[in-house]
Design a protein that fits this description.
Number of domains: 3
Strand content: 5-15%
Helix content: 55-70%
Number of strands: 8
Strand order of the largest sheet: 3-5-4
Number of helices: 18
Structural class: mainly alpha
C-alpha cells in the first residue's frame, strides 16, 4: 500500500482501489488564474492622460458614427436631415424666419447635449469613485461624443437666444396665404425652392422692419401716444414686400381723398431717368422695374431729347429765359420758366434723390396717381387731355372716379380745362411749366412734408443696413446637428 492522497491496495493477486483522490496540479491552477485575470475588467485607476485619450476617442467615434450612418442608413438620414431642412424652409409660410427656426434648433440641440453630458459626467464620477473604472472609461467616451453635439450648437446659443427674443418681441406668427399661393403656383422643384427662399427673406425683413420702426419712434420727443400710434400704423402699413408697396400707396391715397376706385398698376422696363408714368388713354400707372435693363433713349415723349439747352439766364427776379436748339433740324426757340416753379422742382429733385428706393417708389406712385385724378376730372368736365381719347376701360374707370368726387368749383373747372389744353413744345422748360406736372409735384411736396413719411424713409434705410442671416449656413448647420443626433 502506498500512503498518500489516495490509497492503493494489493492483495491476493489483484489490486483494490477503495478510496482514490487526485490532487490538483499546481501549474494548472496558475494557468486558470491567469485566464481569469485576463477576462476580468481592467480595474486600474484612470490617469489624466488616459482620460483625455478616451474623450478624444469618443469624439472620433461620434464623428465616425455620423459618417457611417449616412452610408448604412441613407433613407433614415435623408428623412431626418431632409425633414429638418424642409421644415426650416417652410417656417416663413407662417411668418417665422429660417434664422429663428435654426436658432431654436441650435438652442434645443445644445440643451439636449448638455443634459446628456451632465448625465454621463455624473455617471463617470460615481463609477470612478466606486472603483468601477471600466464603466468610468465608457462614460468618458460618451462624454467625448456629447462634446461633438455640444460643439455643433453651444457657440450659436447666445446669438440664437437673441434671435428668438427679437422675434418674440417684433415678429408675428400667422399663415401667409399669398406666399402659400405663390408656392403652389411655382413651376418645378427649383421654382418652389426659390419661392420659399423669397418668403424667408421677406419674413426676416418684416421682423427687422418692426424693430427699426420702434427704434425710430423712440427718438420722437413731444409726441403724444395717440400720435405715435398713428405714425406707427402708417409705417407698419408698408411692412410688406417691395412689390406690394404700390398697392399700399394706392390704398392710402384712396382713403385720404375719399375715392375708392383705383387704377391698374404694373412694373415695366423704362428709360434710364424715367421712374414711372400715367396714361390718359389707358388710365393706368406703370412704375420702373429695377430688375430689368433700361430701354434705349428716344426722341418725343414728355421731354423731346432732340431739344438741347444752349443758354439759360435770369431775365428778372421772377423769370428764367431758356434757349433751346433742335439737334435734328437746327431750329432754335426760347421758353420762359417761372423762377419759383423752377426752384420748387429743383428742391424736390434734390430731396427725392436722397430717399430710399422704397420711399422713392412711394413718391413716384403718388405723383402718377395725381395724374390719374387729373385725367378723371378732365373727363368729368367733358374735356380730353391733349386731345387723347380714353379707352372704353379707362372711360369706365374715370366715370366711377368722377361719381365719387365732390362737385368742382368754377375755379377748379377752369384749372382742369387749362390742364387739358396746355400746349407744350417738348422742351424741358415747357414740361416744367405744364399745369398737370405742377399739380403732381405739389402732391409730392405734401408727401415729403409729412413727418410719418420722413420717419418711414429712415425705417427703410435702417432696415436695409441690417445684415441678412446666412440661410444656407443655418440649413447646413442644422442638417449636421440632426445627423449627429441620430448617429
Amino acid at each position: 500500500m502506498i500512503n498518500g492522497v489516495g490509497n492503493i491496495g494489493y492483495g491476493y493477486g489483484y489490486g483494490v482501489l477503495p478510496n482514490y483522490q487526485v490532487k490538483q496540479n499546481p501549474d494548472e491552477t496558475l494557468l486558470n488564474f491567469g485566464q481569469a485575470i485576463a477576462l476580468e475588467p481592467k480595474q486600474e485607476k484612470i490617469s489624466f492622460g488616459e482620460g483625455c485619450g478616451l474623450i478624444v476617442k469618443g469624439i472620433g467615434k461620434q464623428v465616425g458614427d455620423m459618417i457611417t450612418t449616412i452610408f448604412k442608413h441613407p433613407a433614415k438620414t435623408l428623412l431626418a436631415v431632409g425633414g429638418t431642412t424642409l421644415g426650416l424652409m417652410a417656417l416663413p409660410l407662417v411668418g417665422i424666419p429660417v434664422a429663428v427656426g435654426g436658432a431654436a434648433l441650435a438652442v434645443g440641440f445644445a440643451g439636449l447635449a448638455a443634459i446628456k453630458g451632465i448625465k454621463h459626467a455624473s455617471q463617470f464620477a460615481r463609477n470612478n469613485r466606486a472603483g468601477n473604472y471600466d464603466e468610468a472609461r465608457k462614460n468618458l467616451e460618451q462624454i467625448g461624443g456629447d462634446t461633438v453635439d455640444l460643439a455643433l450648437s453651444a457657440p450659436f446659443v447666445p446669438k440664437g437666444i437673441k434671435s428668438i427674443k427679437k422675434f418674440a418681441k417684433y415678429g408675428k406668427v400667422g399663415v401667409n396665404h399669398q406666399a402659400l399661393a405663390e408656392l403652389k403656383s411655382a413651376k418645378g422643384l427649383k421654382g418652389k425652392f426659390k419661392s420659399l427662399k423669397t418668403t424667408g427673406k421677406n419674413a426676416e425683413r418684416s421682423v427687422n422692419f418692426s424693430e427699426v420702426t420702434e427704434n425710430e419712434l423712440s427718438k420722437l420727443n413731444g409726441v403724444t401716444d395717440a400720435e405715435k400710434a398713428r405714425i406707427r400704423q402708417y409705417i407698419q402699413d408698408y411692412n410688406v414686400p417691395k412689390e406690394q408697396i404700390p398697392e399700399v400707396v394706392l390704398e392710402q391715397w384712396a382713403k385720404e381723398h375719399g375715392i375708392s376706385t383705383k387704377p391698374k398698376l404694373s412694373f415695366v422696363a423704362t428709360q434710364k431717368n424715367t421712374l414711372g408714368s400715367a396714361s390718359p388713354v389707358n388710365g393706368n400707372i406703370v412704375v420702373k422695374d429695377t430688375t430689368l435693363p433700361d430701354l434705349p433713349p428716344s426722341t418725343g415723349g414728355q421731354i423731346d431729347k432732340s431739344w438741347r439747352s444752349v443758354k439759360s439766364r435770369l431775365v428778372n427776379p421772377y423769370t428764367y429765359e431758356e434757349t433751346y436748339q433742335n439737334t435734328l433740324t437746327g431750329q432754335t426757340r426760347i421758353d420762359y420758366i417761372d423762377k419759383a416753379t423752377r426752384d420748387a422742382r429743383t428742391n424736390l429733385l434734390n430731396e427725392t434723390r436722397n430717399l430710399s428706393p422704397e420711399a422713392n417708389m412711394i413718391d413716384t406712385i403718388v405723383h402718377e396717381r395725381e395724374h390719374i385724378d387729373q385725367f378723371a376730372r378732365i373727363y368729368k368736365i367733358g374735356e380730353k387731355f391733349k386731345g387723347c381719347t380714353p379707352s372704353a376701360e379707362a372711360q369706365t374707370m374715370y366715370r366711377q372716379m368722377a361719381a365719387e368726387m365732390a362737385p368742382m368749383t368754377p375755379q377748379e373747372i377752369a384749372k382742369y380745362k387749362a390742364m387739358a389744353n396746355y400746349n407744350k413744345s417738348g422742351t424741358l422748360a415747357t414740361y416744367i411749366m405744364e399745369p398737370c406736372e405742377i399739380g403732381a409735384r405739389e402732391a409730392e411736396a405734401k408727401l415729403l412734408a409729412k413727418q410719418e413719411f420722413r420717419i418711414l424713409d429712415e425705417v427703410f434705410k435702417e432696415t436695409a443696413k441690417v445684415p441678412p442671416s446666412n440661410v444656407k449656413s443655418d440649413l447646413i448647420m442644422n442638417a449636421v446637428r440632426t445627423q449627429s443626433a441620430i448617429s
